[in-house]
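Human:
If only I could read backbone structure tokens as easily as an amino acid sequence. I am handing you a single protein, as its sequence and its fold in token form. I hope you can help me see how the letters and the tokens relate. Thank you; the sequence and its tokens follow:
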Amino acid sequence: MFGLGTPELIIILLIAFLIFGSKKLPEIGAGLGKALGSFKKGLGEVEEAQTDLKKSLPVVKEITEVKETLAKAKDITGILGK
């Protein structure tokens, strides 16, 4: 997790406790959790829209098929070359 070990996390939590106090920390944590959940949901929607767009555009679909065919051809030439 970002290269932070247990001692670093404890120090960060202590500093946050001193700055915000014990009453504000749960609220901040809940808000941060909601923000991360919302971000992940939005990211999933963007990926889904990208997939739908690729499927719906004929040119993109053709390019994808050509790429797959080239990849298969490279695999076959690699096998035959051995």
